[in-house]
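MODEL INPUT / OUTPUT PAIR
PAIR INDEX: 1
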Amino acid sequence: MPPFTAPPGPAIRQLAARLRRLPPSCGPVRLIGVDGHAGSGKSTFAGKLAEALGGVPVLRLDDIASHDELFAWTGRLLTQVIEPFRRAETAHYAPYDWRAHRFGPPLPLPPAPVVLVEGVGAGRRALRPFLACLLWMDVPPEEAWARGRSRDGEEQREFWDGWVPAEVRHFAEDPSRPHAALLVRQLKLGYEVLPGPVRELGPHQDVTHRDGPPAMW
């Protein structure tokens, strides 16, 4: 039997409704960034948010980065994805194979009404002008990295030893959290969505979306 996946909770459904109402930010696309430290749960959250949005595309920055360019992938993202979206065209990007150490054949990415961009650096300076909203997974770095190391196991220990200082340097030079409209925190059951530092998501800024029993609302 396939593993059971819980459907998106009310916090994610309410967030999805708000994101749909945002104006397009990159051609016809509402580009939503999901950033945070490695191991903070970005991929899982983005998958649930994409489901709540009706199955919208998710571009994972792990497919854009590479061993040689952990963070120096801005030009590739702009050329392969952002510029086609601005022209209302289907983007084509070549996903990187982290085991084979090479890029694969191009995959199409249509200019859907909403597209999620998920990964460390999704809120970087060069990308922010094209984002309709930036979400930050609000997990302390040490906790996130410990989760990631535990998830990836001993096989990836050497990679993590190199990744952590690279990530520290990246966020020191180009921080994302101060520019996030919303902070996402994982609860024991579900998520909590809180206003972020920039608070630029339109009306009802002070509403906190939280999963849990009715008494918590």
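PAIR INDEX: 2
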Amino acid sequence: MPEGPEIRRAADQVERAIARQPLTEIFFAFEHLKPYETKLVTQEIRGVETKGKGMLICFAQGLNIYSHNQLYGQWMVRRAQDYPPTNRQLRLAIHTAQKSALLYSASDIEVLADAELATHSFWGRVGPDVLNPETTPEQVRDRLLAPEFRRRRLTTLLLDQHFLAGLGNYLRSEVLFVARVHPARRPLDCTPDQMARLAEGAIALPRQSYETGGITNDLTLAQSLKAAGQPRRLYRHWVFGRDGQPCFVCETPIEKIDAGGRRCYYCPQCQSA
């Protein structure tokens, strides 16, 4: 499932392709949204916003197309009217004379007025977005200490979009590793240094992943491993997807556990219980 950095990179592509230029056609697959095809096609798109894994295509006259990719949704930007060969179902298409932005397989699509955003079940209720420049480590630390969050296991909390928007499964493992925190811990179990590292990592790793196309490992180390011919899956992350491989810090084999029905990776030495 794409996480906040991947959705923001997709939003960047969509914005470059269709924002601030005349639209030629809009297509909605869902019947209840069909009336908006003619209503929106005459308006200009002023920008594309994201909150975590949600995307908002903002039109000039106060309407917005909200979408959430969930597990299987995928955005594709192509030449105008150039549809790829795929078995996926097209849910939304926005065309200009030069480009088409195509959303496949997503089932969560709505048209919302500006006034509806604050009370929307996702857009209005998620926590601070880790990619938003205004979100700070101090805010994250304060949320970790908040009564509604401090007693929850971090493997669950870091996936909760009401806590922070944009973290997901691979980022969960990576944030816990750079903080040197065992997956079984809760915020109230952590030392002040661990809390500081959790807050820093929850901001820094998603932003690095966004800037680098998914790399959360030390960038110098990743570059040297790439130059040595290592495949991307072995140098992209500190621990995620590397079970049985030596830790980059202490050489202890990385372990994989099930946490909330999803795989989580950690170093039993660096993240000792």
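PAIR 2 NOTE: The mean pLDDT is 96.
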